[in-house]
Design a protein that fits this description.
The protein is mainly β. It has helices spanning 9-21, 32-41, 190-195, 237-242, 513-517, and strands at 42-43, 46-50, 85-100, 103-110, 116-122, 126-133, 142-144, 165-171, 178-183, 200-205, 216-224, 248-251, 254-255, 258-262, 266-271, 278-281, 285-292, 295-296, 307-309, 314-321, 325-332, 348-356, 377-385, 420-422, 435-436, 442-449, 454-458, 464-470, 473-475, 485-488, 493-498, 504-510, 521-526. The strands form 7 sheets. The chain has a 7-stranded mixed sheet with strand order 13-12-11-15-20-17-18, with no helix packed on it. Strands 24-23-26-31-28-29 form a 6-stranded mixed sheet, with no helix packed on it. A 5-stranded mixed sheet has the order 14-22-21-16-19, with no helix packed on it.
Length: 527
């Protein structure tokens, strides 16, 4: 019943608006904004322990803007002289930068860089990266989207304690060329560590790439929130509820930069935000999508005016158009149905673009995909929500999925424990939801039985989206592609197929990082 998106539609619509606006959760007599502010300053489950009153946020005009963007990110140096081996060191530690209004801000960064250094390797390479944790919290490095052994995937149960280190070893299989990234994955801390700056890019190249002749630019889109004194504030309750969106949207760490771009360039884009959705457009320019997270498509897609990039998604695009001169890279407003928030639609200017039109010839075919075997197993995965447990407000009760005692600047409001669910359950580090077989094709039917968008992410492999169903209509993607993130709108059903190439524990979760922190994650074992 739950997997039929057109069953009991009227009843679901009522429930969707009920959850969206918080009607009837015994908070009607209080201002939700006062409650959010109160919860933002509660510490360690004791409502009497509060931060000082905030001084307000940094005004946007205090951030330097209009600087020229370097579309080529600094790379992590390969310490190996052996062919086919990439060997390097990655260190996470606090750094201080004067970024806005000449105020000093403490970030957490990989090798002192924001974003972290780009790792560039080829299919078939062996990779050895020593991670050193100089953070005040345990951490991991998750190689997002890569087909790596379980012990190298940076899972939350494999945390490296402060002052600890670990060598991640894996070999990149043939056919894995694509646009990936790396970020922390320690449960309870992932949201905080990413919004403080921990994220970097990972590009796997093919030795026979049909687009290798094109120059490239790389744009990592992130966001940042700053207090007026330059500090990075903790999440409010509304951030936990809806996912954090920083007021400053950055490209390669720069605010509203100037970008020189030609229409024959291959642009790789990363959405490295916790929760922000982008509807990217440039007046007079169309986008041709040639690649997704798992590499090139079967063939280039038809040109589109707008590009939707949801949290953790990546894409490779070519621009087409006759625009000459200066235009803006914009992001149109996207209504992802936030809870307890009624926003005024607002478009964002992300950059000023100097476009130069140059001819480009793209091959009709970019890549071939083998046909899937018939699925050995069909599973049903359901995203859902339930009302806040406001009776827990006076006491922090973390439960099984918040067992850490490590200090954090960003404690989770206790009333939100168990609010975001997968198949009716919140994440438990000690629970395996099911067992899958190595190299067997699985089909998952994922249904978003909630009022808001959720981006689904699967560890350990790439999947193919077979079809979407929304409002009683079923449609297929244009052309074949490999992905590791797919967005689900309210009451949307998505069917994916994949197989796992390594044994061990695999995670699947919502990639709004606050929702992942709150337990919207599951775990299965591959044997």
């Amino acid at each position: 019943k739950c997997l039929n998106p057109i069953t009991n539609r009227g009843e679901r619509m009522k429930r969707r608006d009920f959850l969206r606006y918080g009607i009837g959760i015994s908070l009607a007599s209080s201002s939700i904004y006062s409650l959010a502010n109160m919860m933002n300053h509660a510490q360690h489950g004791n409502m009497a322990m509060m931060h000082s009153v905030p001084t307000g946020l940094m005004p946007t005009e205090a951030m330097p803007s209009g600087l020229s963007l370097n579309g080529i990110l600094p790379k992590l140096a390969n310490q190996s002289t052996q062919a086919g081996l990439f060997k390097a060191t990655l260190k996470a530690e606090p750094i201080k930068i004067r970024l806005a209004d000449n105020k000093e801000t403490e970030f957490w960064a990989y090798n002192g860089q924001l974003p972290g250094p780009q790792i560039e390797v080829f299919e078939g390479d062996a990779v050895e990266i020593e991670f050193i944790n100089h953070l005040p919290q345990p951490s991991t490095v998750h190689w997002h989207g890569l087909d790596v052994p379980n012990e190298a995937d940076g899972n939350p149960m494999d945390m490296i304690e402060p002052q600890g280190k670990k060598v991640y070893r894996f070999t990149l299989p043939q056919g894995s060329a694509g646009t990936y990234w790396y970020h922390p994955h320690p449960h309870d801390h992932v949201s905080e560590q990413v919004y403080k700056g921990l994220a970097g890019t990972f590009v796997v190249k093919a030795k026979n790439d049909p687009l290798a002749h094109l120059p490239e630019q790389h744009w990592v889109i992130s966001d940042l929130r700053l207090n007026a004194d330059g500090t990075i504030p903790a999440n409010t309750m509304l951030d936990w509820m809806n996912g954090r969106e920083g007021e400053f949207v950055l490209i390669n760490g720069q605010y509203q930069p100037q970008i020189q771009v030609k229409t024959n360039e291959r642009i790789r884009l990363w959405n490295a935000t916790s929760a922000r959705y982008f509807r990217l457009n440039i007046p007079g320019v169309k986008w041709i999508v040639v690649g997704t997270e798992g590499g090139l498509l079967e063939k280039p897609r038809s040109p589109v005016d707008e590009l939707l990039l949801t949290p953790a998604e990546r894409v490779e695009v070519i621009m087409v158009g006759e625009t000459q001169g200066t235009v803006n890279l914009q992001s149109g407003y996207y209504d992802r149905r936030k809870m307890m928030v009624q926003e005024q639609p607002k478009d964002l200017t992300l950059a000023t673009i100097q476009v130069k039109s140059e001819p480009v010839q793209l091959p009709e075919s970019l890549r071939s995909f083998p046909n899937w075997d018939e699925p050995k197993r069909v599973r049903q995965i359901r995203f859902s929500e339930k009302m806040m447990n406001h009776t827990n407000m006076p006491m922090m009760n973390h439960g099984t999925h918040h067992a850490t005692t490590t200090p954090t600047d960003n404690p989770i409001p206790p009333m939100m424990n168990g609010m975001f669910l997968i198949n009716g359950q919140t994440f438990d580090m000690n629970r395996i939801d099911f067992v899958a077989k190595l190299n067997e094709v699985e089909q998952w039917e994922i249904f978003n039985e909630s009022h808001m968008d959720h981006p689904f992410h699967l560890h350990g492999t790439q999947f193919e989206v077979i079809q979407h169903t929304l409002n009683g209509k079923t449609f297929k993607p244009e052309g074949r592609a490999l992905k590791d993130v797919v967005n689900l709108r309210p009451y949307e059903k998505v069917i994916i197929r994949f197989k796992q190439g390594h044994t061990g524990l695999k995670m699947y979760h919502c990639h709004i990082l606050e929702h992942e922190n709150l337990g919207m994650m599951g775990m299965f074992k591959v044997e």
